[in-house]
Amino acid sequence: MMSAPRARRTLITTSAAGAALVSVAALLTPGDEVKARNQATSDVVVPVSEDTYVTTHDRHVAKGDEWRLRTGASPGERRALLKFTVPKLPPSTCGVSVSLRLLARTSTAESEITTVSTTDPEAWDEDTLWDERPDVGKPVATARGLQAGKWATFDVSSAVTKAGEISFAITHQGKTHVDFASRENTVLDQAPELVISAGADLTADTVTPACDGALWGLYRSGNADITAHESTQLTSSTVPRKFDAFRRYYSFSQLTGSSPNQTVSWPSKRDAELARDRVLFLQFDSGCFGTCPTSFNGVPLPKPATFTDPNVPTDFTGEWFHPKDVASGRFDPLLKAIAKRFKSFPGQLVVDISGEIDSQVEWMENGPFRKAWLAGYKQMWRHVHDLFVKEGVSNVSWNYVVGGFAKDDAIYTESYPGDEYVDWISWDPYDNGCAHGSAYATLNRFYSRLEAGLLGQGAREKNYGIMEFGFGKKCQEAYFKDMADDLKRLPKIRAVLYFDRPNMPYSLTTEGWQGYALAGLDSYLNQDD
Fold it and tell me: Where is it localised (predicted)?
């Protein structure tokens, strides 16, 4: 905690809120209506969910039950409409391509152009008529010289940017119309389909990453601006490249304005500027930075708990709003203000709520208060997630962050919000005493528990991340020397952010700074180079 894909890098991330792609998974069962056609080529076939066409010839007749999809501009005009539900892909999948396949029933000349464009999936259904037709959006792909009885294939990768519904309009410029088989054509049984391809077996029980690499980042105390440490040269305080990722810690207590116009003061304008070409991993906390507020826009807030036990980790002392109170809805006006800020943020956010639940509860006796805190944490997470979805926040991925050191598995199993609520699983490993022997051994301590099934099979298909980590000063140089190679042995870790905090056992030495910088120049951590 506070003791804790670069936008231009194609690291596909998922969103449990359905916000980001194509990062499927996972469990491709018949009930999902998603099947693997050929595991050797890693294709996943998504069948059309709705199809029809609209025409000026029969303006008042719905065509959703017809065996064909007809399109063309002469004579008269016809447009075919298709709708698909894109699933989620394993979070470690990269290099995804998506093709639309239509079985042509008529041939066209090389001079005739068939165009696939996007359209609003909510603007039509199979009963839609010509006068109700949806607007044709951005052209995605074209084809010429279609052959009857052959598949026409269109590359629609640029249009499939998230899980959920996607819709296409098919138009044709030529001397006559062209027909394709529809999903109602039971004789041919060759309905329109999307084919999702990647370099890994998307149906395997374990996910092999289709591409390598991890985001490389830094956190410095006080949400410091990391650009002060970016340069074209390696010095004692700068690295010769940009960081891929940065971290921010915020709290419910950081409010601005007065009632009735109070809101949170984060994320900041500077955060938005940095996030233009870096990934922002943001935590917001029900633990207060200082004194907790007593109200929000005139609405009274519950009294916080106070952690003063001498066994409480330093960064977790003070006032905390109980997660069960957040889950109850009593903080919803505040949560809606946060949702509004996130919704207006000009980029993607990877968000965690009150990170390191293990640090929050391990000191507590294994009694009712601890059990209530754990149960409340899971309920809080789900409540916040669902509220954000309801508020239309679509640029957030969800990151379950723990310390990863607690021996009691129940802390994790009882607090984990559930696969449908989580996109990333991250932890904060430290080896202040240089006892583990390598970066690999340090990072693998919790990685291996996840891979052994600590949080279930679904959790193994998430992105893994290291939100903060630290090495003792005596072993920094040796650990960083092998770090890039060590990460290649931990391929599900897709982000690493060092926590360089002053006057701590893990504060970066001159040799440590240079070692971390050189690790960041390795192609595994510097794929844009």
Answer: Secreted
Residue ranges covered by each domain of the chain: 30-197, 215-519
Q: What architecture is domain 30-197?
A: Sandwich (2.60)
The pLDDT score that the predictor gives to residue 1 is 43
What integer is the mean pLDDT of 307-331? 96
Average pLDDT value for residue range 164-169: 95
Q: What pLDDT was estimated at residue 427?
A: 99
The pTM score is: 0.67
Residue partners of 281: CB distance under 8 A and separation at least 6: 217, 245, 246, 247, 248, 350, 352, 399, 426, 465, 467, 495, 497
What's the pLDDT at 384? Answer: 99
> Which residue is catalytic, options 319, 356, 362, 461?
356
Separation of alpha carbons 444 and 170, rounded Å: 50
| Catalytic status, residue 414 | no
Each residue of 292-308: pLDDT tens digit? 999 999 999 999 999 99
Share of the chain above pLDDT 90, in %: 79
Closest Cα to residue 250, out of 425, 2, 6? Answer: 2
356 is catalytic: yes
3.40.50.11540, 2.30.39.10, 3.30.70.260, 3.20.20.80: CATH of 215-519 = 3.20.20.80
Concatenated DSSP letters for 447-462? HHHHHTTTT-TGGGGS
User: Who contacts 31 (Cβ-Cβ below 8 Å, separation ≥6)?
Assistant: none
Rounded Cα distance, 499 and 506, in Å: 8
For Cα atoms 234, 237, 240, give the angle at the middle one, nearest 5 degrees. 30
Joined tokens for residue 336: 């809606």
